[in-house]
Design goal:
- It contains 13 helices and twelve strands.
- It is an alpha/beta fold and 350 residues long.
- The strands form two sheets. Strands 1-2-3-4-7-8-9-10-11-12 form a ten-stranded mixed sheet.
- α11 (271-281) links the parallel β10 and β11.
- It starts with 15 loop residues before the first helix and ends in a 6-residue tail after the last helix.
- The structure holds S-adenosyl-L-homocysteine.
- Residues 118, 120, 122-123, 160, 164, 195-197, 218, 220, 260, 262, 291, 293-294, 296, 336 line the site of S-adenosyl-L-homocysteine.
- S-adenosyl-L-homocysteine binds at residues 118, 120, 122-123, 160, 164, 195-197, 218, 220, 260, 262, 291, 293-294, 296, 336.
């Protein structure tokens, strides 16, 4: 595991083997490290709660380390049961998470960065700028804090909140290792999705790791002209390069790629866009998720109408590309990401 970005005092970001090594160097046996690890992953926020450790050891640990946590600062509950959290981090920064309930269990959409550098023109997160990466422990804390607050086990995770997960790659990989560990929350990698705007170098790297997670790629356009207008990342890696990396990913992992496509009235929702998109995706194990674009102050974008959405699905399906219109949950509570933080921190540029 690459430890380049690890704050040495952040104990919850450590893997079990790192903890065993470190506490071993303090003269502690392996089972002690395991006890500490289990407490941290059960969501304790203070060493004093680790009741099976001696008082002296608890004190020593609290002098050497801190326990990262995400404090619920605001919570909104939608009519459909979706819960939006605004979490406050120890340094006063804020991130958002959304807890959704499906027939297969509870799923949480979590953030990987405070803000984002990618500046997609339709996205609220980018509008408030980038502050910093989250540590693995802070990504994990969102799952723990929501689970504790809601009193339920969370079985599915989507890395689709604020931030670009592949722009915080090492910490995200570390989080994946923690959250799937047997002694931790023990989630199945198959129940985790990672959404990226298309950092091609990292997609290749991830493919070679052959993790069983689902890769979602935010495409949102059928060609470079539209994509470069709405997503600056397209100027770094264009669609040809991105789709080549996606094909490599699905060939290497055998996993279907989920392409996200936010439908914007008159920008990317015309018939020819669906036809061009279908021809682009030929040969890639793909599914297209259509999302009516969420209103974000200042963008001027309007969502496509229902008939447009259905027409787009049929045009794709006729061409052999499976597509669905994503059910929007929590639209009454501004559940789409970036909206709450922007309000709380007064970073609205508009
Ligand atoms: N940076 C990652 C993940 C965070 S954004 C990514 O780009 O995929 C999560 C998803 O919400 C992305 O698909 C993003 O393009 C989409 N999104 C952002 N703003 C939106 C809006 N106003 N309406 C619909 N989808 C939006």
């Amino acid at each position: 595991m690459n430890t380049e970005f690890l704050n040495p005092k952040d104990i919850k970001s450590k893997t079990l083997s790192e903890m065993q090594e470190e506490l071993g160097a303090l003269g502690l046996p392996k089972y002690r490290a395991l006890q500490v690890y289990r407490w941290l992953h059960r969501g304790v926020t203070d060493f004093s709660q680790m009741s099976d450790l001696s008082k002296a050891l608890r004190e020593e640990l609290s002098q050497r380390y801190f326990i990262a946590w995400a404090e619920v600062e605001q919570k909104r509950v939608s009519k459909d049961g979706t819960v939006k959290y605004l979490f406050r981090l120890p340094d006063g920064e804020h991130v958002e998470s959304v807890l959704m309930h499906y027939h297969h269990g509870s799923s949480i959409c979590i953030s990987t960065q405070v803000g984002c550098k990618m500046n997609c023109s339709f996205c609220a997160t980018g509008q408030s700028g980038f502050a910093r990466n989250l540590a693995a422990s802070e990504i994990l804390s969102q799952v723990q804090a929501a689970s504790l607050d809601a009193g339920e086990r969370i079985s599915h995770i989507v890395l689709m909140g604020m931030g670009e997960p592949l722009d915080n790659y090492q910490n995200v990989l570390r989080f994946l290792e923690l959250v799937t560990s047997q002694e931790g929350l023990n989630l199945s990698m198959r129940h985790i999705s990672l959404s990226t705007c298309g950092l091609v170098d990292k997609i290749y790297d991830l493919a070679d790791k052959r993790l069983q997670l689902t890769l979602s790629v935010s495409l949102h356009a059928p060609n470079n002209e539209i994509r470069s207008r709405t997503m600056p990342v397209n100027k770094r890696w264009n669609m040809e390069e991105l789709l080549k990396a996606c094909k490599y990913y699905s060939d290497k992992t055998g996993r279907r790629i989920s392409f996200e496509y936010a439908m914007i009235n008159g920008v990317n929702d015309m018939d020819w866009c669906a036809k061009e998109l279908a021809s682009r995706l030929r040969g890639i194990l793909a599914h297209v998720n259509l999302i009516p674009v969420n209103d974000v102050t200042g963008t001027g974008y309007k969502k496509s109408g229902l008939d447009r959405q259905q027409r787009f699905v049929s045009l794709l399906e006729e061409r052999g590309v499976t597509a669905t219109v994503r059910r929007t949950l929590g639209s009454d509570i501004e559940a789409s990401c970036g909206q709450l933080r922007r309000k709380v921190e007064g970073r609205d540029r508009t």
